[in-house]
Amino acid sequence: MTVVTADLHSVQPTYRWLALVVLIAIAYLVVPFIGSTYLYEAILVPFLALSLAGVGLNLLTGYAGQVSLGSAAFMAVGAFAAYNFNLRVDGLPLIVSILLAGLCAAAVGIVFGLPSLRLRGFYLAVSTLAAQFFVQWGLTKFGWFSNDSASGVIDAPPLMLAGVEFTGPVGRYLFSLTIVVVLTFLAHRLATSQTGRNFIAVRDNETAARIIGVPVLKTKLLAFAISSFIIAVAGVLWAFAYLRTVEPAGFNLDRSFQILFIIIIGGLASIRGAFFGAALIVVFPLVLSRLGSFLLGDLFDSGVLDMSQHIVLGALIILFLILEPDGLSSLWGKIRRRFGSAVGRAA
User: Fold this and answer.
1) For every residue of 224-273, which 3-state class applies, written as one string?
2) For residues 134 and 132, what is the distance between their CA atoms, to the nearest angstrom?
3) How many helices and strands (H and E) does the chain possess?
4) What is the C-alpha to C-alpha distance for residues 261 and 318, in angstroms, rounded to an integer?
5) 8 Å CB contact between 223 and 68
6) Do the beta carbons of residue 84 and residue 204 sit within 8 Å?
7) CA distances from 344 to 7, 19, 331 (A)
8) Residue 42 pLDDT > 80
9) How many CB atoms sit inside 10 A of residue 243's CB?
């Protein structure tokens, strides 16, 4: 029995990668042919964008231990920067515009990450909140960012990648999926590299990390830069693929809290936790709306839905913090281990 259990543990990484490959294959080869327009536009595209934002914030908060409440600001920087690069530089490929937008957000992230050199915890969270208000004010105040649009709302450019235009709901889904798969893979490699271990060392104990030779200040700023880059690309997907408009209102403070809730519910310091949390955040309002309409009929209007969503979501966060502080990712791991143990005992 011991030998069988050991064999199961030894092949787990192989099964994990195989399951991931199968999941990606289904996402590319099956979902585009069986999904509906509602599935792509209301569920899958926002799920992918929010998942990527969760991955970015998890690198900063979950791995590096730096609390941030300004995620939506970096999403906005990414969306507006990509729009302006695409608009003002003739012939610039969209993917290059997105990469440059990510670099712009990384620079902004470093600036707003400077207080982390002196501040921690709640005080750092408040300082990052300044990014949210400052960016929204700047984008609203200066019309140049929105090409002097009277309403401040501008249409997103066509989605192009390697000379291929991604049109329609399926095209926007495939474009978002490709970006998310690539950046998630890179984020996973980063989290398991020496840089990721430095993030964890700074999170656990800055003094101990400094003693063992970790460059604490550089590590913190690097975490802000990488996190802001990924979140900015998520902002591009949110604006270009989901909303199909670029406007400051799409990146308000509620969006920042939404991304924070994603990593709390999904699990801190877990790449897959960002996807679990985003799935719950995206699907939960739809399920609540259907259930409320079924039980209460016309009494369950949009106002009641919004209030109920906040109440139930807040209760879920409290329950997770008390009963399962490591989130859905940890819960999924426990289920897998119990299943593996049951298989081992049966063998």
Assistant:
1) HHHHHHHHHHHHHHHHHHHHCEECHHHHCHHHHHHHHHHHHHHCCCCHHH
2) 6
3) 15, 4
4) 11
5) no
6) no
7) 9, 20, 20
8) yes
9) 19
pLDDT tens for 282-311 read: 988 888 777 777 777 676 676 776 787 778
Please indicate whether residue 23 or residue 2 has the higher confidence score (pLDDT): 23
Neighbours of 160 (CB within 10 A): 15
Separation CA 250–CA 140 (nearest Å): 12
Could you tell me how many residues make up the chain? Answer: 347
DSSP string, 30-78: THHHH--HHIIIIIIHHHHHHHHHHHHHIIIIIIT----S-HHHHHHHH
Residue with tokens 């327009």: 37
C-alpha pair distances (Å), 317 with each of 71, 289, 312? 19, 19, 9
- Written in H, E and C, the secondary structure of 291-327 is HHHHHHHHHCCHHHHHHHHHHHHHHHHHHHHHHCCCH
Supply 250's token pair: 């799409």
Q: Which residues contact 55 (CB under 8 A, 6 or more apart)?
A: 183, 184, 187, 230, 271, 274
C-alpha pair distances (Å), 220 with each of 64, 131, 178, 207, 216:
7, 17, 29, 13, 6
Residue 161: enclosing H or E segment and its boundaries? Answer: strand 159-161
Predicted confidence (pLDDT) at residue 98 exceeds the cutoff of 70: yes
**270 to 36, 141, 196, 200, 330: CA distances (angstroms):** 30, 38, 12, 12, 9
326: CB partners within 8 A, 6+ apart: 267, 268, 270
Strand bridging mode 154-155 / 164-166: unpaired
Nearest to 100 by CA among 87, 114, 113, 112: 87
Token pair for 330: 């940890």
Phi-psi region of 54 (alpha: psi -120 to 50; beta: other; left: phi over 0): alpha
Average pLDDT score over residue span 228-246: 96
Contact criterion met (CB below 8 Å) for 97 and 82 = yes
pLDDT, the chain, mean = 88
